Amino acid sequence: MAYTVPKLTDYSAAALEKAAADLLSASDQEWQAVRNDSDWKAYRDRWMARKNGILTQINELWLKGAPKDSKRDVGSKLNEIKERVEKDVEKGRRFSKNYPILREYFSSSLVDITLPGIRRAIGAEHPVVKTSHEIVAVFQKLGYSVAEGPVVETDYYNFEALNFPPNHPARDTQDTLFIANQVGKPLRQRLLLRTHTSPVQIRTMEKQRPPLRIVIPGTVHRNDPFDASHSPMFHQIEGLAVDTNITFGDLKGTLDHAMKSLFGSSVKTHFRPSFFPFTEPSAELYVTCFICGGSGKRGPDNAQCRPCKQTGWIEVLGCGMVDPNVFEFVKDNGYDPKKVSGFAFGMGVDRLALLKYGVDDIQLFFQGDVRFLEQFG
Amino acid sequence: MKLSPQWIRDYVDLSVDDRRLAEDLTNVGIAVEGVSGSGSDTVWEMEIGTNRPDAMNHYGVAREAAAVYDAPLKEVAAKSPLLATNARNGAPSAEPGAAFPIVVEEPNLCPRFSARVIRGTGIKPPPEKIAHRLQLLDQRPISNAVDATNYVLWEIGKPTHVYDMDLLEGGKIIVRKARAGEVLKTLDGVERKLTTEDLVVCDAKKPVGLAGVMGGYDTMITEKTRNIVIESAWWDPGTVRKMSRRHGLHTDASHRFERGADFESTILSCDLVAQMILDSGGGELQGDVLDVVSKKMDQAPVLLHVSEVRRILGGNLDAGQIYRLLKRLGFTMIPEGQDDARFWVNIPSWRLDVEREIDVIEEIARLHGYDKFSNTLPAYSGAVVELPHMPIDAALRKRALALGYNEALSLTFISHADAERFSAAGAKVLELENPQSEEASVMRTSLVPGMLDMLAWNLNRDVAEARLFEIGSVYESAAEGRVEPRRVCLGATSDWVKNALPAGGALDVSKGEQAAAVETFRGFKGDVENLLALFANEVKYERETAEYFHPGRSARALVNGAVVAQFGQVHPEATGARKLRQEVFLAEFDLEQLYRIGLRLPGFAPLGKYPAVVRDFSFVFGDEVSFEQMQSAVLAAAVAELREFKPAEIFRGASIGAGKYSILLRVKFQSEERTLREDEIAQWSGAIVAALTGLGGLQRT
What we know:
Chain A is of the alpha+beta class.
């Protein structure tokens, strides 16, 4: 028995409610009977047609006969019903997963959504390059420009101008790989593989007058045989700030800020005296271990934290105030040590990447093993 | 370097435990890096900077501990009244004609030479306490006399040496340069040929010791020794270092002398050694201490400005604080002027590393504690400048990653053989003076060997599909020293051609191996084109590449006449040499050329408002006809509305015949002004067919 819109005599809230419920339930029932496109059209027209559709009829049959004082309530109730039906019929049902016309198609075209996706190959960033970019970005935000210099360097820039005099024991700390056939040249012109990115400090100060803020990423070499934590080739980032007002407190503040940017705002920094020929005072910077959080212990069974050797601290870089002897080499370009001061710092990128990603062997960085590299994709 | 905390405590009374002591010393730069043993046998592994030879011994570390806790440091002195009196009476010099004359011929290299003579002693094993302490530090006990010198070295850091006096010929000691042809057998039993650069201690006839490095074998203490000469000198650091390196002899003595020993400890060390020998072996002193001072050590006072302390360190340490800190370290301060702004600072004799105002400032900062200075951020008004090549590197890197290539870094060293095989014509290699191996003996002149090694690494581990790229420098010798041009290298290999290239693209191998090879090459070339598209739309390709490429499947790319890349399948001999089991594709980009060209600024072309018309033409050509020739011929037909001309399908096979191939060419016409008419399309198609037929093509119907 098809639904017909009844005439309303009782305009009480309860009666109105019942009439609305009957209407909506009728709409649901008729929807269930829709089997094909012409059913769908007939259904839509029966309910929605402007001329004599059911929604039009209720206006005539329910609203017009309503007592004056309840007209407002009835009107708003009817609007509610209309909106609901319009929504169901036009959108909700037509585009629902239950759309009867497509029900069969849907059930016959299932795919197993638990099958793994087919992934397009995406290249992975190398963890050392990525780490280097991240560190450089931190300092760029602090106003540092990137500077670069040659890997094959002269003795002058790698040692002498950094206050490693010829025949000085401090040179022993940097096992150096030398370029062959240099004997005929004066010592300061002899070529070697730079043992740190610090020579770029001098090269940049020769070209640019203070104030200066540079950050220097680059490849360096030492005569260390390969093992899990050593490589004859590795990467450093050096920083240098020179101005008329730079203090040791500025060095500390800058690096504290940088470490918090890199390792998280809860990281604490700690500075210990150290020795580098090109800085005075010199320091080593330690941060609270970002693996164990500074406790020296890991996991529920309080296992010993290896990266920090259970001390809770990890050494991340060497730094210090630029030694006046270094400024003497570039004094003519505005670096009078009586007028300017500066700080410098240098860190090993590979080591930081090892720590950051928990990689246990530095050699993995330079083998090009796809199984390794893809882990960073 | 190992030290014993128990021994350190001999010289300073401390209430803190070893753990706390280690921490506090580390925080003033006397780093305790490791702890082993326990109780009184605890041993510390120390990390002492090369500038602090004064702290490479127990008394020196005790001095630092005393400074840290502001505790009194006990005196070290010989107990025997005779020794003490001698020492206190100052330093009598050994005049020529004295009982045991000392002649210093090189006063600049040996500014001070002190000695003591002991007669009638006996050589025995060392006392138990001495042997135990030395063993804790991994020092092997030898005899009471030798261990006395060793003990004093570890006690106060001053190296000394003992000679069997009866084996010294001619009754005197001469310090001089070695003569050409002289030979010295050192304590380690090695015969060393001396050079005229070597500084030696000699008796009247022969060298008996390599100054500051190691004593001679023939004059050493033996069980028979009864009379002993104790030597404690101050040697020029540079001279000791050169000798130590020349003879490959790094000793505890040379380590300290080349960093600078305490000039004022020569007599004390002689006396301490003498005391230990007399105590353990008996005998008696002969005469006073001998002390030849040829040159006084110049340790001028340093003028310290309080304002300079604040300019460098920040914060506001005042004169009183500075005074107290320096006093704890053994420095004394004398005011210069009335306003507490400047002070003359006297440097203790054991601190040869402190010479300048900045060195004193470091001492202040170090003892005050680095962590006590507030963290501040400096103001800065400069701008951040980007290096011009950085955005180019970044764009290439991003695109290579997007194309599915993993970023890799290979070693910067290659072998001579690879340098020869893979260098560009005329490139001069930079050889290493001290390479770690032949495989790593020259600086790379190409990224190719490294890339091939990385691909081989994967194939050898059953990783059969690899796509890698590296951005880096190569190194060549040049007139001005060296050049370090930048390169990009792509490498790709896969065991399944169908899936190999381009990344993830499925290729149809059903039409034969040659067709698959064409598709593989085109897939790789597509990656090259995608990278070059960052720089130019117009790229020309020529069949001319380095010897290590497959001559039929490689090409070079030119932009504006400049060669910017070469790429293709690697020569089978080159892959064979590395035992690569499958085909490998490489591309090398000359970044220096690409930097010159610069990144292409994309330009807008209006999207056509009128519909495009696509037509396909199927032709058979002889193998000698290239696609580029077809393209040129079609472009020569000058159809203004031609928008696109590309190969849609290529086919070889028996049905076509040997030496020929079938190609389906797709053409797109479009006008910006109107919808195209059938008759004009027919006319243009005719022109295109005519152009292709003119090349010798046969249209298939």
